[in-house]
Amino acid sequence: MSQDLFQAPDYYQLDELLSxxxxxxxxxxxxxxxxxxxxxxxxxxxxxxxxKSIISxxxxxxAFGPYIPEEYGGAGLDQISYGLIMQxxxxxxxxxxxxxxVQSSLVMYPIWKxxxxxxxxxYLPKLASGELLGCFGLTEPDHGSNPGGMTTNxxxxxxxxxxxxxxxxxxxxxxxxxxxxxxxxxxxxIKGVLVERGMAGFSTPETHNKWSLRxxxxxxxxxxxxKIPKENILPNKDGLGAPLGCLDSARYGIxxxxxxxxxxxxxxxxxxxxxxxxxDKPIAGMQLQQKKLAEMITEITKAQLLTWRLxxxxxxxxxxxxxxxxxxxxxxxxxxxxxxEARQILxxxxxxxxxxxxxxxxxxxSVITYEGTHDIHLLITGMDITGISAFK
Length: 392
Ligand code: TGC
Ligand code: FAD
Known about the structure:
Blueprint: H1 20-46, H2 55-60, H3 79-92, H4 94-114, H5 117-129, E1 134-137, E2 153-156, E3 160-171, E4 178-184, E5 190-196, E6 202-203, E7 218-229, H6 241-275, E8 277-278, E9 281-282, H7 287-315, H8 321-345, H9 357-367, H10 374-386
Parallel strand pairs: 1-4
Antiparallel strand pairs: 2-3, 3-7, 4-5, 6-7, 8-9
Residues 98, 101-102, 136, 138-139, 145-148, 171, 239-241, 244-245, 247-248, 321, 370-372, 376, 380, 389, 391 line the site of 3-thiaglutaryl-CoA.
């Protein structure tokens, strides 16, 4: 990839809404992405290899558990800092942000919120430092948008549980040390189960040949009569609301992350358009290209405002699931649209790995699908404003 010349757009001077701590955290993450992610990410994506070398750096910038209290090894930051870290990481690559999202919001969050003190002490500090990596198993081959229909199950065998079933499309599965898995008990109630690598009957085959999120490892979780010690069940919440609560936190991070990908595409396209001469003048001077660039910065600015306000509500514990859905849906759609337009501005150069745009565009095809598809989030908004569920 060419040198990382990224300059973040801030059309409405939104930095003025951020505290000194927000700016420090954001700038540290921005610098780290420039230094450690940009130089290696294109090759990692081309080779479909998760760059394990970045794990310690992710831990150092506070990307593993940004809002988890410091007593458990987290960074103890607020929700806007968490969002800004996700924005900067996804500016580098959605797959790297995925690793951070899964570790923070889908593994550390449920252990912190639904686990007991022994589970928090055992796992959280090591997850925060990157010594352990986690994954989150909700989706099944036959239950994607409708996780409530899951068939993965636990059976009470007296002094342990027996876990059977399979999860699919699981980020980080191939190398995760611990999996937070959602399974039904004999009463049909969904429980959170901590499954550790090495348990007999537990395997994690990798899913190959992805055209998207190639720098992130995706796989299956297969449970064939896995003996689960009773102390590995998350005791403090059950039912579908437990995994959905984790998704609220991860979807919030994605709403910020998508802005990062969009900013990178816009910034690259703007710089290219000013330099590329056709018909004896820069293509940035052509009305059609200006329309694309002007619409991009307008949409990025709207998304920044939406997300900043959501962050304020989240800090006050007032952000609703439906508000988070709206931001995830809007921002990912905005980013994918900008990636497609930006790619066109670069002409043929846009399809090469010299520039990040095509990689962002392909990554965003996963981002618009996982953590609730574009359609599902629209229906969550629909349900919220009408009071009628389209899912039943
Ligand atoms: P529904 O009847 O609406 O709700 C069931 C129970 O859950 C409660 N609830 C919530 N609780 C906490 N937080 C939320 N956000 C909640 N939303 C609902 C609800 O009150 C109810 O509680 P109770 O006590 O009455 O049981 O459920 P439904 O079956 O009709 O489904 C609703 C729907 C479709 C919105 C939901 O299933 C959904 O969101 N589906 C999308 C699935 C999804 O997002 N999967 C993501 C998998 S993880 C992933 O993609 C990680 S990618 C990570 C990466 O690499 O970055
Ligand atoms: P389906 O649910 O089969 O949906 C197919 C289509 O039907 C979609 O367009 C959908 O919008 C539409 N549809 C479904 N229901 C309705 C409805 N009621 N009304 C209208 N339209 C509907 N999952 C995890 O648990 N953990 C992970 O770490 C994880 N990581 C992932 C990483 C990647 C790279 C990808 C691609 C996925 C990952 N997922 C993960 C899975 C992801 O959450 C699911 O793919 C997603 O929830 C959609 O499920 P599905 O693919 O089965 O699609």
